[in-house]
Batch of 2 targets.
Target 1
Amino acid sequence: MWTEFAYQAQPMRVTFGPGRVRQLAGEVEALGLGRVLVLSTPGQEELAMRVAGMLGERSAGVYPKARMHVPVEVAHAARATARERGADGCVAVGGGSTIGLGKAIALAHGLPVVAVPTTYAGSEMTPVWGLTENGVKRTGRDAAVLPRSVVYDPELTATLPVGLAVTSGMNALAHAVEGLYAPDASPIVSLMAEEGARAMVDALPRLGTDGHEARTRALYGSWLCGAVLGATTMSLHHKLCHVLGGTFDLPHAEVHTVVLPHVVAFNAPAAEAMRDALERVLGTGDPAGALWDLAGSLGAPTALADLGMDERDLPKVVEAVLGAPYANPRPVEAEALQTLLAKAQHGDRP
Ligand SMILES: NC(=O)c1ccc[n+]([C@@H]2O[C@H](COP(=O)([O-])OP(=O)(O)OC[C@H]3O[C@@H](n4cnc5c(N)ncnc54)[C@H](O)[C@@H]3O)[C@@H](O)[C@H]2O)c1
């Protein structure tokens, strides 16, 4: 039973529904924005062009150069483009990389961001920014980077390849898991986390077969999981993924997919609420094993080795994690962390 908590709601507007992107111009207008720069990755330029077309004279054109982990050079160039084109806001159409670029512009120039997410990463719901310089990723929290408006349109996720959708969904599940044992957890966060995890676990196996319905449910789950991430402090899982992704340049969603079952197994003895919620969601007394089975059954990676991690670098991960520790329900010691990482490296079932 909850006896004590604090909860800070995020000041943003969220709209959700198939075809919702066609109402984007209204969202931009409601924020009082007259000229917005549309951001995307090179692979989603065509979608960004369509979105710019929908915005008509409120569009300041497309900047299609977003890249994973927001390299500072890309951020500088995008900020310069926003200035040259007289943009008073940005519309980020894409996954965490594109929304991250919008946040980088907001961080420097205060331009409001409207996010149109097309993956399940959840960045649109958080005030967390990240910038990578000389291979080192810096992150921080700043209310200025929190998108003012988020438009979830499941139709835009139809093109997300199933493999990417599955790992992105596991990334979302990780937000829910850590929200359930965060030091600043609260009743509303726990409700969002369990409901988000349930929607995602239900949708993931059906993404390839039930198309629209499953993707709608997954996007709904990703919203809730992202909201959990935005409302809580990250723990061991996110720290590990941050080090593995940032220092060893491993792919973001895939790393989350491999590491999550092992962190759930590690933390389960010290995180009763998380264990109980996951047991309800997954319908088993072994949530860590069930998450590993789920990923494997959907063809997602289960070993860091398969993502290109060199086993000889694992001690550096241990050092980095212990050197600047995050909160965690179970104390993290070197030996236990080595065991956890060795299992993740080899793809052992937790
Ligand atoms: N700040 C935060 O709160 C936060 C939260 C989660 C992730 N992130 C960051 O986001 C990045 C990862 O984001 P991601 O996992 O969404 O990957 P991503 O944005 O890099 O997208 C992966 C690839 O999928 C393509 N893609 C995206 N949506 C698509 C669609 N619907 N159809 C076809 N292709 C599509 C993209 O163009 C890209 O090539 C990392 O840098 C991570 O650190 C930040």
Target 2
Amino acid sequence: MSITEQIPSLELLQTMLKIREVELEIARKYPDGDMRCPTHLSIGQEAAAAGVCAALKKDDLAVSTHRAHAHYLAKGGSVRAMIAEIYGKATGCSRGKGGSMHLTDWSVGFVGSTAIVGNSIPVGVGLGFSLKMKGVENISVVFLGDGSVEEGVFYESINFAVVKKLPVLFVCENNLYSVYSPLSVRQPKDRRIYSMVEAMGITTETVDGNDVAQTYRAALDSVTRIRLDQKPHLMELSTYRLLEHCGPNFDNELGYRSKEEFEFWKNKDPIKNFETDLIAKGVISEFDLIKLRGVIKEEVKDAFEYAERSPYPDENEAFANLYSA
Ligand SMILES: Cc1ncc(C[n+]2csc(CCOP(=O)(O)OP(=O)(O)O)c2C)c(N)n1
Ligand SMILES: [Mg+2]
């Protein structure tokens, strides 16, 4: 096996388990009413964040969307600071002013996430521009959803990145939906996002985004190529969210997606399948997996306790660090 075919299996598993446990705990505690911001959970989509971020360096930069928990955590963001942020506490990563959709941690290269669909795409491209101007070998990663491909700024940003040859990796997590609207009512029949975008002069690929090993390998290839060639690239990752668009519940009773479709994707659970694979290959034993889950549960429990006992921001802080144009 060549060195590039080896994957950091345990790191990938640990990252996905951590994201899943954090979000399950958010879902469990959300009804208490202490998290007062909307939360968009990525349960079912963990492999995309884990696979891509494992291919990055700590000082590579990333931006994300309203569904940002997984990206923030996979990039190395602190669990304590994220949970405190969701609780609106002064110890949160945005000092309690941002909530779930506005996460940031420059110390791990996670520059930020925003609630406006498509809004962070040009920011990520601008970051790529700044990295290029500085002459460093870092790259900028833009996590986006299939819905943001319907925003004009997506095309402007891709065009600018192509023309200026920017070191930007666009990662489109295609989970088939924008809220309750499937792709079939939003984009022409048979359009494949990656092939449409390729026509703009950027290399693209499509990857099974629920297969963390495949996602990691593809991301490592893409990231290495971007560093070397100083050109942007787009990965379209097919995936599926298992909970409602926004909030802690299932919403299958609304009828916007079929039971068959849901079951198909539930069987493609990125964590369960990877665990089964790693146990079969002897990479981890069932015993060690249980221990690993236990350690992660403790870290998550600690983060919630930290958030709950942290103070709210001082009211004198209300207008600090706020900007408007
Ligand atoms: C400009 C804008 N239009 C509409 C919305 C409302 N909105 C919030 S999330 C969302 C869905 C976006 O879908 P997608 O980009 O595929 O991300 P997903 O929720 O599937 O992760 C929409 C339409 C918004 N926040 N911003
Ligand atoms: Mg979507």
